[in-house]
Amino acid sequence: MSSAASFSVWDYVVFTLMLLISAGIGVYYAFAGGGQSSSADFLVGGRSMTAVPVALSLTASFMSAITVLGTPVEVYQYGAIFILICFSYVLMVAVSSEIFLPIFYRLGITSTYEYLEMRYNKVIRLFGTVLFIIQTVLYTGLVIYAPALALNQVTGVDLWGAVISTGVVCTLYCTLGGLKAVVWTDVFQVGIMLAGLLAVIIQSVLLQGGFNTIISDSAQGGRLNLWDFDPNPLRRHTFWSITVGGTFLWTSVYGINQAQSCDPWTARKVSALDQLMPYLVLDILREYPGVPGLFVAAAYSGTLSTVSSSVNALAAVTIADVIRPYLNLSEKQLSWASKGLSLFYGAVCIGMAGVASLMGGMLQAAISIVGVVGGPLLGLFSLGILFPCANAKGGLAGLLSGLALSLWVCIGAQIYPPQPENSRPLPLETHGCNISGSSNWTANTEENLERPFLADNWYSLSYLYFGPLGTVTVITVGLIVSILSGGRQMKVQSGLMLSKDDLTFYKVYSVLKEKVSGSAGKFDLVQEPEKSFGKTNFAFCDVELFTQTPA
């Protein structure tokens, strides 16, 4: 371990303050304004949150420690092609806004899983809810464990002390303060994350002599590998795997250094790739007491924001889809049930952190979890929205088939990791390291382990395709079973299917056609949207985002 890897008293002070302030916000909202007297107060903040903190909270929830620590490692090891994931966000927004949001908006539902009961039956709604809970618990366990392990082995921070303190603080302010505590701690944590990341970026640029030097070194080291159009689905990262696989991945979530330097991993200064970012921070910021602690606080702010949002979402979904439909409870009882569920799920997520220790790199593990479960769920919603012949038998058969197939390839990939010719890691060098001897590194190779035929074919499928595999399987199997079980004769309730009137292009075409024909009358860009949006559906009503005052 390098002498750079040390954590000073001031670093501990900064990190501890972040935890204490986060917990303090939860305690404050537990008592402010009469406390959390109803389930609506606890789960949706009484629908009185303003737009800015809600937007910042969404940003914080997206920026987990996996993003802060895992993404730089992915680029360091496999190149900058991963930035193409931004294209998938654009495609995801288009798909979500055109296909899924119009249906949920029109139906006025507050939980997306309500749609599954309307379109199929209660059993499939329950299946979807349980899968969401399993996915979120697994992902949250990884979010808690991965940064704690990386920081433990680089800084010496106690592993399980970090895991338990993170989980306890999150559970505390979620249970006490509800959504308001989650949102306002996220706002505080966004500031911490920005400060920590800016400190690292500014110091890195200063040490390397400017952005131009960094770009030049990256190009010389082969890191600017942005355009790889290889259609082979076994390749880890290509234009197609990142954009297509990424679109399926994010739709399932939101729709429903230079080459010649001292490489610290090859030089054995760190024992895992996920430790590279903390090592870099401690190395370049060691002369500034407290600043490394600020970065650690930034990483853990990402963890806290993601875990708190997950715990709140788990409690909300359980109340809406499991408890409220079957038990006749008062608002007071639902409020206490919500708090109890937050406490329960917080404890489960801490325990699940142990399972995360069995998985690989944090970014790949996170995307795999979301893809394996989210892909089949996306297929189930798509089947119901796009195909009128889909019935409950087809939906259930497709969901189970897609889940089984995704799990099969994911577990196989864990047992038999893809060979270097498919994962294609970039070369790393140790010429600049202060160690005896120098060596180049390209990839870790397995010691003559016998690999079955499927290992280098089926199990080597890019992890970004786990989601699309599940989605396509659900739709294919679901259609076949639905047709064979009389799906063509069924009549679907009006409003549960996507229609041409839901599509933006069709709406634009209709308006232009009316204007050209002269029958549209006065076309007011301000008044027209106000007549149709945000008024009939309280789940999507824009007044939720603003503080309501008595008349």
UniProtKB/TrEMBL annotation:
Membrane topology: Multi-pass membrane protein
Pfam families: SSF
Subcellular location(s) per record: Cell membrane
Keywords noted in UniProt: Cell membrane, Ion transport, Membrane, Sodium, Sodium transport, Transmembrane, Transmembrane helix, Transport
Assigned protein family: Belongs to the sodium:solute symporter (SSF) (TC 2.A.21) family.
Name of the protein described by the UniProt record: Sodium-coupled monocarboxylate transporter 1
Keyword Membrane: yes
Membrane-crossing segments per the record: 12-31, 51-70, 76-105, 126-147, 159-179, 191-211, 341-359, 365-387, 394-416, 463-484
Organism: Labeo rohita (Indian major carp)
